[in-house]
Write a structure and sequence with these properties.
The structure holds two protein chains of two kinds. Chain A has 17 helices and 15 strands. By secondary structure, chain A is α/β, with parallel strands linked by helices. In chain A, α13 runs parallel beside α17 and α14 runs parallel beside α15. Chain A starts with 5 loop residues before the first strand and ends in a 10-residue tail after the last helix. Chain B is built from 16 helices and 14 strands. In chain B, the strands form three sheets. A five-stranded parallel sheet of chain B has the order 12-11-10-13-14, covered by helices on one side. A four-stranded parallel sheet of chain B has the order 3-2-4-5, with helices on both faces. In chain B, α12 links the parallel β8 and β9. In chain B, α1 crosses α8 and α8 runs parallel beside α12. The chains are: A alpha/beta, B alpha/beta. At the A-B interface, β2, β4, α5 and α6 of A face β1, α1, α2, β3 and α3 of B.
Chain lengths: 438, 360
């Protein structure tokens, strides 16, 4: 029987990333788009892709101009009653349009028609282009200018260039940059900070808000929580940016350059000690002494109890989750759980995490969801999985209990850890080791 | 504005149709895209993807491949999969990217065929056309590949009292299982092979079919080719009306109204029209479609819509007592005052027939 490709944590951690098997590099192989991959490899029907991300801009509508195929799966999120469906428009291109470029003036015309009909009247129109325009070299800046002149509104380019996903400006980096590009310089507000990285807000119970407030920073702005453009513009008054997702780095760099707003990058981790260390460092940078004992103490109690109750259970996890899969694996391994399988191809920069995983669990199998041989993955390949976390692992072990852990409300910090552990506990309860739908 | 969708979402494109046609035939299907088109198909347009496995892969094109025209990447990436999968054929499915860069599909198919020593077909989809074109092109390419002009398959291939059902894909039928199609005997046949829902052996048995039933326009060209090549007669009809969840109610409702509009795939809609007229001779039934329209089933007042706006204008100008159509289309004229029976069309709304809403 043909088997899916995998590599053990030990083997991979002992190999120079330059020599990692090319099976782990998606661009080197045909790509298998199983249900495990849809939310991150081809978002649209699931997850946040460029279109849904672009609509994070308050008071905006989106015009996708493309062959019909590029907008097809938006039907899944674009029903008539959804907030996305009511704000998404499509200008369909045919072959003659593409060959002659005659569609470019039509975009301006379509934008004008949309502005006349859309209720409430939008203030921003996101012009979403696709691989076609990437290859034709469409001048999106000029196109936006023409739309702005004709429609008296803001026009921004949301480039859905799947072809460039491994290039210097991948689509999800570009769209984050675009989303902050309307901001204008204004006086600083020492009591304000931005959180960059996600398209939805942090869990409102996250201690980060409280910690910042104790330090006098009581205005925290997040794009995904902005109801209108007026609120959005406050973001350029922030004293600093907290970058919680690496794909927002470029946007933060722009804001530093244009508005002199410095950025501090935090990593979303579920390891208690790292959460504490990260907050301590943040406090030092801001010149604040965060009172962490209470949160840390509660975290200690929770993790110890969790470890006692669930030590030795087998967890499979992977992509499609509000976590870095390797960090999540390491968190659980350090709590005494077993992680026999990780469905996520690591990046070379994750070698230290990989080494830590290999120290605790050298035989952990690492699979690449996108590899063609994953078609041969059968549930019975890995016996005794007690629970899966995330969409990808759920796909491979559909009979197991599953914690999706991919809500729009973003977990972070101690609160994130608490949410993870309670989610696992609730999914596993009442019977620890039974297999069945969770 | 023509081609502007303000309330509808785009319909299933040609590459989805091509994949739907080939899904169960045991080939390796390579979609020549960056990943998004494959995601559209697997994540949305192919409901069987959730239940069945098929060797469908994205070529994973990157900008540098497209700019430099590195078609050889396909050969490199496919390499050892041929040995692993032992496919019946390799299918190259086009998308907008190769369309823009002018990929020579035929040349690429020839190289692959020589290199891998298996039959290779190409379906030059563009993403700008509808699914029915893709279904038709995929089946035509497969037939031409396995039964070429100069093939020795004689017209007098022994017939074995098998009925072929041509044009069956989930995109039109709104079902995912073979059993759902073979609800009952079709015109006295007990051995019925719905191409698109059966295996490759059934496709290879096409010359021995006694009769073909064309249930959607995407199967019409295949039927004509089978008649030409193997002398197989065909009938255009949709004998599977029992698949329609609302069918009893629909017929009942249609039996006492006068002006009726059916919007769906033309052959299904035309069959419904015939059945309605058999219980209500006074009815004036108009068939409308966004997709292929065959002259064989075309009546004077029938309508081909080429845009959302065309449907909107039509609904505003014409008065109907009853509309039978995918309820997603109602968004075009939400205040319309007439009875509307939901008849889901997967290629329009991504809903199966069993998803039909029971409100009217």
């Amino acid at each position: 029987m043909t088997s899916p490709f995998f590599v053990s944590a030990q083997t991979l951690s002992q190999t120079d990333p330059k020599d990692w098997p090319k099976d782990l590099i998606s661009s080197q192989n045909l790509i298998y788009s199983s249900k495990a991959t849809l939310a991150f490899n081809s978002p649209g029907a699931e997850g946040f892709g460029v279109k849904r991300a672009a609509l994070t801009m308050p008071e905006s509508v989106l015009l996708l101009f493309s062959p019909g195929c590029c907008g097809r799966n938006t039907s899944a999120i674009g029903g008539p009653t959804s907030q996305y469906g009511q704000r998404t428009y499509y200008l369909l291109l045919d072959e003659t349009d593409i060959v002659t470029g005659r569609y470019l003036p039509k975009i301006v015309e379509a934008a004008s028609e949309i502005m006349a009909m859309a209720k409430p009247k939008p203030k921003v129109i996101m012009l979403c282009s696709t691989c076609v325009d990437a290859l034709l070299g469409t001048d999106m800046e000029q196109l936006c200018r023409k739309v702005e002149e004709k429609c008296s509104c803001h026009a921004l380019a949301a480039t859905m260039y799947a072809l460039t996903r491994e290039g210097h400006l991948p689509p999800m980096v570009a769209v984050r940059r675009t989303l902050y590009s309307l901001l204008k310089k204004q006086p600083k507000d020492p009591r304000a900070a931005n959180i960059l990285g996600f398209f939805t807000g942090l869990d409102k119970n996250c201690e980060l808000y409280e910690l910042l407030a104790c330090g006098g920073i009581d205005r925290v702005y997040e794009l995904g929580c902005m109801d209108n453009l007026k609120a959005y513009h406050k973001m350029s008054s922030a004293n600093f940016n907290l970058v919680l997702h690496s794909e927002a780095r470029l946007a933060a760099d722009d804001m530093e350059k244009n508005f002199q707003i410095p950025a501090i990058e935090l990593f979303r981790t579920y390891q208690l000690s790292k959460i504490t260390n990260q907050y301590k460092i943040l406090g030092q940078i801001l010149g604040l002494k965060f009172k962490l004992q209470g949160y840390e103490g509660e975290g200690n109690v929770l993790t110890e109890k969790f470890s006692q109750d669930f030590k030795g259970i087998n967890v499979a996890l992977g992509e499609g989750v509000n976590a870095d899969p390797l960090d999540l694996a390491l968190t659980l391994l350090r709590l005494g759980l077993n992680v026999p399988e990780i469905f996520a191809a690591p990046a070379p920069t994750q070698l230290p995490q990989l080494k830590a995983i290999a120290d605790l669990s050298p035989d952990t199998k690492i699979y690449s969801n996108l590899h063609p041989s994953m078609m041969f993955y059968e549930d019975n390949l890995a016996q005794n999985i007690d629970i899966t976390i995330g969409l990808a692992a759920n796909y491979y072990h559909q009979e197991c209990k599953n914690l999706l852990f991919n809500s729009d409300e973003q977990p972070f910090g101690y609160q994130g850890l608490k949410k993870l552990l309670s989610g696992l506990r609730n999914t596993l309860a009442p019977k620890r080791n039974s297999r069945g739908k969770g | 504005m023509h081609k502007l969708l303000t309330v509808l979402t785009p319909f299933a494109p040609d590459q989805s149709g091509a994949v739907a046609a080939l899904f169960q035939l045991g080939g390796i299907i390579i979609i020549c895209d960056a990943g998004g088109c494959t995601g559209n198909i697997c994540g949305f347009d192919e409901p069987r993807w959730r239940e069945k496995k098929s060797a469908i892969f994205s070529l994973g094109l990157r900008d540098i491949d497209a700019i430099l025209g590195r078609d050889d990447r396909l050969i490199d990436k496919t390499g050892n999969l041929i040995e692993i999968f032992k496919p019946n054929f390799l299918a190259l499915i086009g998308t907008p990217v190769p369309t823009v860069i002018g990929t020579d599909y035929a040349g690429l198919a020839k190289i692959a065929e020589k290199k891998f020593n298996i039959p290779v077909i190409n379906v030059p989809c563009t993403g700008t056309r509808y699914y029915d074109v893709g279904v038709e092109e995929a089946w035509t390419a497969l037939l031409e590949k396995f039964f070429p002009e100069n093939s020795t398959t004689p017209k007098s291939t022994p017939k074995t009292h098998i009925a072929g059902v041509l044009g069956a894909t989930p995109l039109d039928l709104g079902v995912t299982e073979y059993n759902e199609i073979i609800l009952e005997n079709i015109a006295g046949y007990t051995d019925i092979r719905p191409i698109g829902f059966t295996n490759f052996d059934d496709f290879l048995a096409i010359p021995s079919f006694t009769h073909n039933f064309v249930i959607s326009n995407s199967g019409l060209k295949l039927a004509k080719l089978c008649q030409e090549k193997f002398g197989t007669p065909y009938t255009i009809n949709f004998p599977l009306y029992k698949l329609i969840k609302n069918f009893p109610f629909l017929l009942d409702e249609a039996s006492f109204v006068k002006r009726i509009l059916i919007i769906h795939e033309q052959i299904l809609a035309d069959t419904l029209r015939t059945m309605i007229l058999s219980v209500n001779r006074k009815a004036i039934v108009t068939v409308g479609t966004f997709f292929k329209q065959a002259m064989e089933n075309h009546k004077t007042n029938d309508k081909k819509f080429d845009s959302e706006q065309a449907l909107r204008d039509f609904l505003h100008k014409q008065k109907f007592d009853l509309i039978i159509a995918d309820v997603a289309l109602k968004r075009v004229h939400p205040s319309i005052k007439c009875c509307w029976i939901d008849l889901p069309h997967f290629a329009v709304s991504g809903r199966l027939l069993s998803d039909a809403e029971e409100f009217y």
